[in-house]
């Protein structure tokens, strides 16, 4: 199952969701590959992989392959896979070099499908492939959507949350009609939810009215531990496993497994709220 996590609005918890969902899918026995196609490379650094890349480069005098090499230089995707310290979790990392890729790919044949073709073979080795798309509707995001079976949209439980979603939905429809007929919106995740405010509750109701049963029951709270973890190169499962944020992402992982892999066994809850 290939999931593209996207929202062209920045600051909605997109990369935080990819990182922590990926970790909990792996913890629950799902072989998972994360693909960082956001030139900001926050997923790569948030998982502590940037340090791993630097260490490898210093030892071999040759930088490891990244998603840039896969998309632009036609490097086989398997050559860019890095095994993380977490069992069942791999990543194809990203560096700032990817920032120029959209310009470099403009003249490429079938440029919207480069990522799809690149990961076609390797994706069969995983239960889940989760793509972290840039906060834009450019060529990199389109590649993520064309490669995906389902799109997952994080929606911030704050004012203006639904602004711009219409454009994203239209883009998804265009890609479905012209480039990827099997792709659909697979789920919507409410993030940065503050139960103390009426605003969060109102946005939640609006989102549920708009997307119906596509909205996951798991809601990601506004939680300081979720903000602190990436600066330490750690997931919330490693940094604060008993926090409210950890519990929410663990529950989300269970929902994702049940929704997209109905035959899969789900490991029991590992954390408790704290």
- Biggest sheet statistics: 8 strands, mixed
Spell out the helices and strands N to C.
EHEHHHEEHHEHEHEHEHHH
Q: What's the mean pLDDT score? A: 88
Termini Cα gap: 32 Å
Helix content: 40-55%
Instruction: Kindly report the CATH topology.
Output: Rossmann fold
CATH class, named: Alpha Beta
Which runs of at least 5 residues are low in confidence (pLDDT < 50)?
A: none
Protein described:
This protein has 274 residues and is an alpha/beta fold. It has one domain: 3-Layer(aba) Sandwich (Rossmann fold). It is 41% helix and 16% strand. The protein contains 12 helices and 8 strands. The protein has helices at residues 14-27, 42-46, 49-60, 67-72, 101-105, 114-119, 139-147, 165-178, 198-211, 224-228, 236-239, 244-260; strands spanning 2-5, 32-36, 82-83, 89-92, 128-132, 150-156, 184-193, 215-221. An 8-stranded mixed beta sheet has the order 3-4-2-5-1-6-7-8, with helices on both faces. Strand 3 and strand 4 form a beta hairpin. It is globular. The two termini are 32 Å apart. The model has no long low-confidence stretch (mean pLDDT 88).
SSE topology sketch:
Layout: E1 2-5, H1 14-27, E2 32-36, H2 42-46, H3 49-60, H4 67-72, E3 82-83, E4 89-92, H5 101-105, H6 114-119, E5 128-132, H7 139-147, E6 150-156, H8 165-178, E7 184-193, H9 198-211, E8 215-221, H10 224-228, H11 236-239, H12 244-260
Helix pairs in contact: 1-12
Summed up:
This protein is α/β, with parallel strands linked by helices and 274 residues long.
């Amino acid at each position: 199952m290939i999931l593209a996590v996207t929202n062209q609005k920045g600051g909605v918890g997109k990369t935080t969701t990819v990182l922590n969902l990926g970790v909990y899918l792996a913890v629950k026995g799902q072989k998972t590959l994360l693909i960082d196609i956001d030139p900001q490379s926050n997923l790569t650094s948030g998982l502590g992989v940037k340090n791993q890349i630097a260490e490898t480069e210093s030892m071999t005098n040759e930088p490891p392959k990244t998603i840039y090499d896969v998309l632009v230089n036609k490097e086989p995707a398997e050559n860019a896979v890095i095994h993380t310290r977490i069992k069942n979790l791999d990543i194809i990392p990203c560096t700032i070099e990817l920032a120029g890729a959209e310009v470099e790919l403009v003249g490429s044949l079938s440029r919207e499908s480069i990522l799809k073709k690149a990961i076609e073979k390797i994706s069969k080795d995983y239960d889940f492939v989760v793509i972290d798309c840039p906060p834009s509707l450019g060529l990199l995001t389109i590649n993520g959507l064309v490669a995906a079976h389902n799109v997952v949209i994080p929606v911030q439980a704050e004012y203006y949350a639904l602004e711009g979603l219409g454009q994203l939905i239209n883009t998804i429809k265009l890609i479905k009609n012209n480039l990827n007929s099997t792709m659909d919106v697979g789920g919507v995740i409410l993030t940065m939810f503050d139960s103390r405010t009426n605003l969060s509750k109102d946005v939640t109701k609006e989102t549920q009215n708009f997307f119906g049963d596509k909205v996951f029951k798991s809601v990601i709270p506004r939680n300081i531990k979720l903000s602190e973890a990436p600066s330490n190169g750690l997931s919330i499962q490693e940094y604060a496993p008993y926090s409210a944020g950890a519990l929410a992402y663990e529950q989300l992982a269970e929902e994702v497994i049940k929704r997209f892999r109905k035959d899969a066994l789900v490991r029991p809850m590992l954390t408790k709220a704290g």
